[in-house]
Amino acid sequence: MTAEGTQLSCLPQPAYNRKPSPAKGDKVVISASRRTDMVKWYAAELRDILTCRYPPSKVHSLVLWTKFAAAVLLPEMRQTLSQFDNLYIHLTVTGLGGTEVEPQAPAWEDTFSALPGLIEFTGGPENIKLRVDPIFRARRGANLYDNLDLVREILARGASLGIKRCVTSFACYYPKVKNRMTGAGFALHAHSHEEQAEIWRELSLYAAKLGIRLDACAVPGAPESRCIDAEVLADLHPGKLACSSFQPRTREQCGCTHSIDVGGYYTKACYTGCVYCYANCTRLPALPPSKKDKS
User: I want to staple 187 with a disulfide (CB 3.0 to 4.6 A). Which of 139, 147, 251, 252 is the partner?
Assistant: First the structure.
């Protein structure tokens, strides 16, 4: 093959704007999971799903969502994940881990200690999207929890490790979230739309100076973005294999392309305990004994 032919073979294939069809040999994008942290709380079940229902031969890209970088690197999880062609990780770091706001999440410093190993395992920083999400402000007693200044520090630390894609949004206080938080003694200090617009503008400029593209996840007034992005996944795929660019449009300003999420809001409760979480019911689930003291 000529040098020119070799170069052309490495170009991404054109995406197709329809749901993937196994009958046509299409591979799917698996999401695990925007609904719950399966990597941490349902690791054995996730490994079973990826072995039996969605083995590597059926999967274009595996997209993981987690606050627990170290959990990805545990031996059994590594063994399963390493079989997939393309691994992409949404790693959430808010700066609130270990506080009353995110009691079971790791401290952000601990996450960054594990991040170099995660970058090496996935193949490079381009395979990780840092989610500094959400921007949060509330008071409980004498404690004011406001992570805006930490957002800047987290972006800078990510940039120092080669991270080029980050995403953020603002905490959304649905009625069940308000009830949960006020019942737990939190006083809400939500950012106004005007504050959100100014914060978004300032953070975008700050991130750009760091060499980071900062996306907004369904933030009114901000450009539409994609957490699941067929173009990015195809470009990262070792064979530049195309995947579906079909957009389900599950909510306004969500440009995500097609994926199959294997988590569940109620069937797989998340035990991280984030007080702002809209995936859980009014009362956060208690951490069962079987989930304690596990990495």
Answer: 139
In a domain, 76, yes or no: yes
Q: What is the pLDDT of residue 158?
A: 98
Residue 219 lies in a domain: yes
Question: Residue 177 sits in a domain of what CATH number?
Answer: 3.80.30.10
Domain span at residue 144?
14-288
pLDDT for res 253: 79
Q: What is the secondary structure of 31-69 as a DSSP string?
A: EE-SSS-HHHHSHHHHHHIIIIIS-GGGEEEEEEEES-H
Q: Count how many domains the chain has.
A: 1
- Residues 269, 36 contacting (CB under 8 angstroms): yes
Q: What is the pLDDT of residue 295?
A: 47
250: amino acid identity, one letter = T
Which mean pLDDT values do the consecutive 10-residue runs of the chain (295 residues) have?
A: 41 79 92 96 97 97 98 98 98 98 97 98 98 97 96 98 97 91 94 93 97 92 91 96 91 89 88 89 69 58
In a domain, 293, yes or no: no
What's the token pair of residue 20? 């993937």
For residue 2, the model assigns a pLDDT of 32
In a domain, 6, yes or no: no
Residue indicated by tokens 């790791």? 106
Kindly give, in sequence order, each residue whose CB lies less than 8 Å from that of residue 135, ignoring residues fewer than 6 positions away: 147, 148, 151, 168, 169, 170, 171, 191, 199
Q: If you compute the radius of gyration of the chain from its CA atoms, what whole number of angstroms results?
A: 19
181 near 138, Cβ under 8 Å?
Answer: yes
Q: How far apart are the first and last CA of the chain?
A: 48
